[in-house]
Specification:
- The protein is of the alpha/beta class.
- The protein has one domain (6-230): 3-Layer(aba) Sandwich (Rossmann fold), CATH 3.40.50.
- The protein is 32% helix and 31% strand.
- It is built from six helices and twelve strands.
- It has helices at 13-21, 51-65, 133-143, 160-170, 179-189, 213-230, and strands at residues 6-10, 24-29, 32-37, 40-46, 69-78, 89-97, 102-105, 111-114, 129-130, 148-152, 174-176, 193-202.
- The strands form two sheets. The chain has a five-stranded mixed beta barrel with strand order 5-11-10-6-12, surrounded by four helices.
- Strand 7 (102-105) and strand 8 form a beta hairpin.
- The longest helix has 18 residues, at 213-230.
Amino acid sequence: MSDAPLLIAAATPAELAPLDAALAGAREVPGGRAGTLEGRAAVLVATGVGKAAAAAGVARHVERHAPAAVLHVGIAGAYVGAFVPVGATVAAASEVDLDLGVASFVNDGGARVEAMEDVDFALLGATPLPTDAAWRDALARAAGVPPEPFATSDAASGDLDVAAARAARSGAAVESMEGVAVAVACAAAGVPFAEVRGIANVAGVRDKAQWEVAAAVRGVAATVRDALRRT
């Protein structure tokens, strides 16, 4: 087992709170907290919300801590047709950027985003970026749910119609606001990347009375800890 720490990143401190509470020998480090989690050296960092903050934060901490891998955690919404229930914890099979491309209006007044012709955006996340197989499988076994394709947008789906269009275009099951940015930062640095998220809501449902944020955050922490015990 490598002596290098795991970098566990989330958008907000609240998404890290149960893992932070379980961190043994916790100490402050620049931008985060370090210690051991299930006997494994770990650094927990909150990068901020959105792709720019996530990419910059993870890139900075990868350079600072030279981690063995980056685990990206947090909450997310699931698309209706994916049949992933609120309350489930799901590992990412891949990540894709919903925002890269050419945006145009369609006849019903909505908008669509299409790929740019003759431009290879593979390393920027416009085509799906796979997650690290070993970590993906460990997280999926701990979650008890098969891995699913994830998608990322800086603007979360505001209604079910937008969510349905995004799901149809991307083939994704789960939507977040940071994942692909962390995947791209890790790919550029040559660091293994994995992602696991708790499903707090149906993508496109903005009524937070219907969300299960606390349960989603607890589920992610339990899954990460179980996966660490298995590796």
